[in-house]
Here is the input.
Amino acid sequence: MTNHGWILERRPVEKLDSDCFAWREVALPAVGPGSVRMKTLMLSLDPTNRIWASPVESYLPPVPLGEVMRGIAVGVVEESADPRWKAGDLVQGMLGWQERVVVPGAALNGLPPGVTPEQWFAVFGHIGLTAYFGLLDVGKAEAGETLVVSAAAGAVGSLVGQIGKNIGMHVVGIAGGAEKCRWITEDLGFDAAIDYKSEDVAKRLRELCPAGIDVDFENVGGEIMDACLGRLALRGRVVLCGMISQYNATGAPSGPKNLANVLMQRGRIEGFIVLDYLPRAGEAFGKLGEWLAAGKLQYATDVVLGLEHAPAALDRLFSGANRGKLMVKVADLP
Amino acid sequence: MTNHGWILERRPVEKLDSDCFAWREVALPAVGPGSVRMKTLMLSLDPTNRIWASPVESYLPPVPLGEVMRGIAVGVVEESADPRWKAGDLVQGMLGWQERVVVPGAALNGLPPGVTPEQWFAVFGHIGLTAYFGLLDVGKAEAGETLVVSAAAGAVGSLVGQIGKNIGMHVVGIAGGAEKCRWITEDLGFDAAIDYKSEDVAKRLRELCPAGIDVDFENVGGEIMDACLGRLALRGRVVLCGMISQYNATGAPSGPKNLANVLMQRGRIEGFIVLDYLPRAGEAFGKLGEWLAAGKLQYATDVVLGLEHAPAALDRLFSGANRGKLMVKVADLP
Here is the structure.
């Protein structure tokens, strides 16, 4: 049984792309006591992959050069020496960018019954937890408040806006291009959209948020965040979830100029990392499942076929090509 | 009885200085029912005066052109038609940059017995409340944590650092010049000082805060704040109290480049305005008075003699000339 995977060979200077990786055969150890051999079915691609490949210590250590790229994936158990799992079980965990892997059974979690790998990544998993806890726990979002979400047609943003609508907020999404803006308003039910590629974001925020922004769910950073800071309402909260506009930057990023408004408005900017919320995952899954079953959460998937395309596909997140949850189909469901 | 005051004649382009003001006779209405005529004794000068003179709506409306400059002052009641006050009472309130004023008695507060105008401005009043609630309520400061305070030899900063020591924190102050650094460490008991005029702030923060910064009490903004953001500890808090480095800026300010670290560290940047804490003033005054009586709060005053010098004196806050609480003595205590 051979196994292949993507090895991180070089640190990205700007983009994390094919130049940084090498497709190699990866040794597969025997399945010892407590461990499990998994076949990868679906690999999640996320903006944070760019952070993991950087040499900088962040919320996780950098992926070491010469090792398989870190990645969250859904797989099927092929062989198990852990009583928790048996062949055929669908599980998810940090399986890496490879066809197969042997991991401790304790490092895996099962998928809820009836949930497909696509649904898992698009609605539950790290994306769902990020949207749910970011908006409700960090952002302390309340019915009647105004929510602005950037990268609104992305995996997290599209959920955040819908959760906002489900709890009774006025929701404005910022996205790139007419089709994404149409999708979030017509299909997902956002109250309004701002096309940052063709519109003046600050001007449109003034029009669409006459009483200011109560919660800015920030996925982008840079100029878009700055425009939101300038429009923050009294006691407005900025959920600092991601800063995708900055991840590929080679020089020092330009910081927000409107920080003085955070002071004047008694605003709050708060960073968060979804890993901190894993112990409370059950809370979110229950509510997300309820909304999904009631037709109150739509999702889109952006599925790339074949693990060989993973390095090239990652750029879809940074170029604006992606809509909904980006993932790579590695193998068919058994 | 004549009355003179400083009229705001022009909006500041850069500095708020003598060019912006005119010394004029100001009409003094008769003392009607419920009102009081005050003689100004001591005027507080604060960085926020620069904000009030700007045309921008902030936490208070701009001072209208052609009106007496807004200012917090201590005065003595000369004539009262409000049963709460009698001639000879020492009171404080928004009396403005003028020799006398007639105001509603309801707009005044008495000074605690035995507290001088200097002590009132240096330890209690808006300065004491800012330091106390900013550090403890917004910053959620705890014993054993590391506190960094900028403008540490200023009125607020010097109190913040001492309150930090009084509750058992490790305290690092950032100030300009050897004498200020000596004062905050040797006289006020800070653990360490960084002279931003002669030292590399980011490098010194790495040395002096090996486990990172738990609370950054930020009075300065700009590059100094940026250095602190880059050194924030896990779940570190930035109390955004002031951004004096930005107030005189003519172009757009340069924003902090280290915002990504706020995300990684699950940090929080929170703006606050002391006015929100007026209802809880008693809490702070009790504790501040206790520390003062026990010799655990030192203070310095920077007293300029004569209301005619108020516009020129304001620049002491921005040029770094000031140490401790800046105020203008308008008249002798009766």
Summary: The interface with chain A takes residues 58-59, 221, 226, 240-243, 246, 252-260, 262-273, 276 of chain B (CB under 8 Å). The first strand of chain B starts at residue 4 and ends at 8. The domain at 125-275 of chain B is CATH 3.40.50.720 (Rossmann fold).
